[in-house]
Design goal:
Layout: H1 2-19, H2 26-41, E1 48-52, E2 60-63, H3 81-93, E3 97-100, H4 112-118, H5 120-131, E4 135-138, H6 145-148, H7 152-160, E5 166-167, E6 169-176, E7 179-186, H8 199-216, H9 232-243, E8 247-251, H10 264-277, H11 281-292, E9 311-313, E10 324-330, E11 333-340, E12 347-355, H12 356-362
Parallel strand pairs: 1-6, 2-3, 3-4, 4-5, 7-8, 8-9
Antiparallel strand pairs: 2-10, 6-7, 10-11, 11-12
Helix pairs in contact: 1-8, 2-9, 3-5, 10-11
Length: 364
């Protein structure tokens, strides 16, 4: 009976969850991002930090959207914890700074005491970065508690052994080929009418979606390389970044990895156009086969040749197959990476990569 209900209800329930989880308004997104960027750049330390970043020496890993829960059937992070812990061990040993880009804790469905109790291991791994002053924590919509509750600092001190600030964003100031760039990092929920402080959405997730998800064993976060075009929210955030001068934007929130302003499917269309231009029949056939797996199939071939590579999304750490994705900046490169354990041992895989000096050549 339960399996039959899972089959019958999975798609409509996920559609319902999506309806109540995202409704971005373009002007609100633009206004929110512009205001945040301006305030951080202007020195508002309550909003975020403005930090120098040396692309040739420093190393940064960016993860978002763990949604650490109570280790019940509604906990999307539970299956991913193994990869997340292994990834943090690796990055700590390699001397990376860790920027947690929000929604680290699922505090719409759970209270902080449940999350603390059931995620000791991952908190201890994060604590290693805290002790080295190499941890920046940014809040999202599902862990807005860190910004709103007057006693949140006590919980953070209990978790990490010391009081740490939590920001809405941060800006990395850096040079590409002697040209000044600012990399703006924030969770990305700003301007989303269903996420930006919406009480009904929080009620829906806590009291309807969470219990139903747990009972039906549904994780709406499809594998990282699902073949989809950019979500509406990702598209709006890309638009904001594309009209800003010498700015890159990195967010989370949507759970959809984006690299150089393109999803995996969109990059396939770019590769297809190049193969068609070179009349490479074998490559055309191979790429078309991969594109054909996408749903829905586009009746016409989209053109992404004029896309400005100014926007990145770290994806999430709660995919249904246990994989996690993130953004690395190291060795003069920016990378979209995935950690998976298909052979039972967590492994790092580079999905996309470009040297930052090469990226500068592609930007207007």
């Amino acid at each position: 009976m339960k399996k039959w209900l899972q089959y019958l209800l999975q798609k409509p329930v996920i559609r319902l969850a999506e309806k109540f989880s995202s409704r971005p308004d373009k002007q609100r997104v633009f206004d929110s991002l512009s205001e945040l960027f301006s305030k951080i750049k202007g020195g508002d330390i309550k909003k975020g930090m403005l930090l120098p970043f040396d692309v040739s020496k420093q190393k940064i890993i960016i993860f978002s959207d763990q949604h650490k829960g109570a280790k019940n059937k509604a906990d999307d992070f539970a299956i991913c914890e193994k990869n997340y812990v292994a990834a943090l061990d690796y990055y700590f040993s390699q001397g990376f700074q860790y920027i947690n880009l929000g929604d680290g804790e699922e505090l719409w469905e759970n209270n902080i005491f449940q999350v603390k109790k059931n995620n000791t291991l991952s908190f201890e791994k994060e604590k290693l970065f805290v002790q080295q002053k190499q941890f920046i924590k940014i809040f999202g919509n599902h862990d807005l508690y860190w910004a709103n509750d007057p006693l949140a600092w006590l919980q953070l001190q209990n978790i990490y052994g010391e009081k740490i600030p939590v920001y809405e964003g941060c800006i990395l100031s850096t040079l590409f080929n002697n040209r000044l760039f600012q990399i703006c990092l924030t969770h990305g929920h700003q301007g989303d009418l269903q996420s930006d402080g919406n009480a009904f959405s929080k009620f829906f997730v806590a009291n309807i979606w969470g219990p139903l998800q747990g009972w039906l064993d549904i994780n709406p976060n499809t594998p990282a390389f699902n073949n989809q075009l950019k979500s509406l929210h990702n598209s709006i955030m890309y638009e904001w970044s594309s009209i800003e001068k010498n700015i890159l934007l990195i967010t989370g929130h949507t759970h959809q990895p984006v690299f150089l302003s393109l999803t995996h499917l969109e990059r396939l269309y770019v590769k297809l156009a190049n193969a068609q231009k070179n009349n490479d029949v074998e490559k055309i056939r191979s790429i078309e086969t991969e594109i054909a797996r996408a749903e829905p199939v586009n009746p016409t071939q989209p053109d992404f040749s004029k896309t400005i590579p100014s926007y990145f999304n770290s994806g999430c750490c709660c995919f249904s197959d246990g994989d996690i994705t993130g953004i690395e900046m190291a060795d003069g490169c920016i990378r979209l990476i995935k950690w998976h354990s298909k052979t039972d041992i967590p492994k790092r895989e580079v999905l996309e990569e470009i040297r930052l000096k090469e990226l500068e050549d592609l930007l207007p």
